[in-house]
Every structure is written in structure tokens, then in C-alpha cells.
Amino acid sequence: MAGVDEAAVEGDDALYVLTAVLLTPAKFPSVLGDDYPEACGALGLAPLAEGYGLVLGQDGQGARWTVVVDDVSLVAVAIASWDCGMEYELSPDEDSMVAALPGWPLALAVAAPGVPEPHDPDPESDPEYTDTPPLTPPDTETWGPAQRRLGADEIALQWAVWREQLDDSQFATEEDAEAPQEGDTAEAGPSGTHTGIRRVLSEVRGYVDAPPPLGRVRSAFASGDARTLRADGPGWSLVARTDDIAFVLLDDEPGEVLPVGRGRELPSLLEALDKMAVRPA
Description:
This is Integral membrane protein. The protein folds into 2 domains: about 5-100, no CATH class; about 145-275, no CATH class. The protein has helices at about 35-40, 70-85, 145-155, 160-165, 175-180, 195-210, 265-275, and strands spanning about 5, 15-25, 50-60, 65-70, 95-100, 215-220, 225-235, 235-240, 245-250, 260. The strands form 2 sheets. The protein has a 5-stranded antiparallel beta sheet. The protein has a 5-stranded antiparallel beta sheet with strand order 6-7-8-9-10, sandwiched between helices. Mean pLDDT is about 85; it is low at about 5-10 and about 180-190. By secondary structure, the chain is α+β, with helices and mostly antiparallel strands. The longest helix has 15 residues, at about 195-210. It is built from 7 helices and 10 strands. Helix 6 (about 195-210) crosses helix 7. The protein is elongated.
């Protein structure tokens, strides 16, 4: 998280920068969509291959603004500096600014000091305001696509914590998940059903044969030589490590995390996904 920088715009249009995020094929706020084009569409942006940086802040009246810039490297350096606890004044050049969108697409628990509390711009009094409805964070209060994707984010971030809770003998392998079961039930996880897992694995295999929209499958660094894989689709998210197991979350299984063991098939599937996944530059 950034500090507060009066950096994005100068003078009367000063923006007090609170934070910034990347919106690229390999790294985007997954709460906004299952893939990069969907996340861009949530902001009314074209899914450019190079991606964007999103700078979130407040103006002098406290209004929320999201400044979209095409200088992805600058925003990436700022984020990396903040993550290391270093100060960095994020000051995009005006030529790099693509749009100034009212509102925030993500929930922030911070505010700029010395200005009114965060609020949406007033369309009647703010000269910068357009007819675009203010951006608002997706609803994560109830289980649904946004909360499901956030859950998958948390598993990817805290893999070791989730993994150590499992006894490998207590959950199904991919072969078990594929095998029809009497009553369509088996020990696949907390939900006790293989139906959703079979569907997810089938759709993920389909991604290998017919590449999905950009960003549906992403690969990130993990410990050792392993990679952390993330795949999303209509109503589901999958998180896996190339040297370990997979976790599945489903829209129709509120709050459940369904583990899938390696078995004979999962390693080759994860290897194939890693080869076609989008990776950070």
C-alpha cells in the first residue's frame, strides 16, 4: 500500500495517491473478472496487450478517482518499492494518462489526510466528472464470483498454510474425481461431491486444446523450481502448484475449498497449463 503522494496531477487538480495496482494479462485484480478482458471491461477499457496501471486516490475535495495510465513499468516500480517498505512518489506523466475515472474499483480502508472523507465526485460541481457512473468495488459480502476469486487469491498467497491443513489420504485424486460415483458422491472435499470438480477439470483440459481469453490461466513464481498456477472459468477457480496438488472453489459451493490430489493425471495437466499460461514480464 502506498503512502499519500500528491503526485498524479498538479495544482488545483492534485490527486492524493493512496495506492496503485497493475491491470495486465499476467497480473490484474481478479476480483474484477475471470480474465484480463473481463477485468478491463469492468472499467470500460480496451484490453491492450501492454496493459495499464491504475492509480487510486482522492482530489482536494476528497472525491475518489482512478487514474488509468499506460506507463506500466512506472506503476510496477512504485508497487515494488512500497512492498519493500520504501517511499516512492508515483508521479505519472500527463502524456501517459489514458483516463480519469470517477470512483474506485477496489475497496480501500485508507484515506488522504487533510481532505474530506472519500466520496464519489459530484456530477454537478466537479468539472472533471463525466457521464460515466462512478466505479464501485464488486460485492464481496455474499458468496459469488468476486468472493470466490478473492478466496483463490488468498490460497495462492498463503499456500503453505492451506496445504498443511490437509492429510493427502483424505481427498480425491483427479482420477477419483473423474470416475462416476454412485449417487455422484465421494470424498472429494468438504462438499462431498465430485460433480463440480469433474466439470472444472474438464474445462481446464479444454483450455490446453483451445486457449481461453487472455489471463484465464496465469503462472507465478513459487518456492524452488515450482510455479503457482491460477485458472478461472465460469463459476469456478483453480489454484495449484506444479509440484503439488490443486484446490478448486465453486460459485455453487459457498465457502468450500475442494482439494484434488495429484494422482497419475494431474501432474501432466499442470505442466501443460504452465506452458500455455501468461507469466509476469
